[in-house]
Amino acid sequence: MKIRSKAPLRLGIAGGGTDVSPYSDEFGGCVLNATINMYAYAFIDDDIIGDQVIFEAKDLGVTEVIDLNTEISLDGNLILHRAVYKRVMKQYNGGKYMPLKLTTQSDAPPGSGLGSSSTMVVAILEGFRQLFSLPLGEYDIAKLAYEIERQDCKLSGGKQDQYAATFGGFNFMEFYADERVIVNPLRIRRYIISELESSLILFFTGASRDSAKIIDDQVKSIKKDNGYRLDAMHKVKESAYKIKELLFKADVSGVALEFRNAWESKKATSSSISNALIDDIESSILSAGAISMKVSGAGGGGFIMIFVEPESRLDVIKSLERFDGCVHKFQFTDEGAYSWII
Fold first, then answer.
1. What is the rounded average pLDDT for all residues in the chain?
2. The domain spanning residue 306 has which CATH number?
3. pLDDT tens profile 76-117
4. Which terminus of the chain is more exposed, N or C, with fewer CB under 10 A?
5. Which residue ranges in the chain fall short of pLDDT 70?
6. Helix-, strand-, coil-residue percentages of the chain, each rounded to 5
7. Which domain holds residue 57?
8. CB 222 within 8 A of CB 272
9. What is the set of active-site residues?
10. Is residue 338 in a domain?
């Protein structure tokens, strides 16, 4: 039997970083994000002869073959593949390792700022949910994905990506102590979504970054400084509420202006958020007529969301030609992770 699954990547529109402990535990975090038509894919083939499991990440060009008569460690390049497999076998297959081949690929590289690593975990879990007919809902899969990354693999990060990939669509998410998460799906009218798609340029800087290191720096900065940086994080959260309200009021121009405030607040939470390349890109696009911009995800590189008047779209795109990155066409999607059998 062969299982196919996919999960959508997301744009972090506002509030990113407030979903990370200890901020979310002490103050409560909230994030507004939306999934797009870029995906992480997982393919599971259980028709494997012999006692081995094969992990292959097509986009990374990495393959690992593991003898199931030995213990599977979390060492190696494909730590997420190993961790998901181990957790599922332990929790849902009586602890017995099952011979299979797991192949993955993603439309965005790790460190892109679109939640690609967490989305890949969700896609793999959705495939195993289908394989074993597991009674897992959206909250269950997202929580399990979070535990695998943060607890099993000990990777730093927040909680929004797993829930975005699982639920899909526009969501306003709330994060509290004791791992409590509330996902509020937003009903955004189609013409507002069309205006957003026409007003946003998604530009890949060509420079991926280690989000875990940036998040660690952000957490340390907040712990050491309860003044300036903590106040900046409060403003990041406030922008999420403002942008949600502006979307409901169909005020896309207001969203573009609030994006500028959100970006300035985001940069103030850590010195790792921006860099010389991002500053150069920002200066260039604003001179070409862009309204505002913001890095999607932790910061430091990856994808940049740029707000423009639709009439000025091509002028801004032309100003980006001198950089090594590339513009990605996209549309918002309202469907979360799903799987099928062939």
1. 93
2. 3.30.70.890
3. 899 999 999 999 999 999 999 999 999 999 999 877 889 999
4. C
5. 207-226, 298
6. 40, 25, 35
7. 2-188
8. no
9. 161
10. no
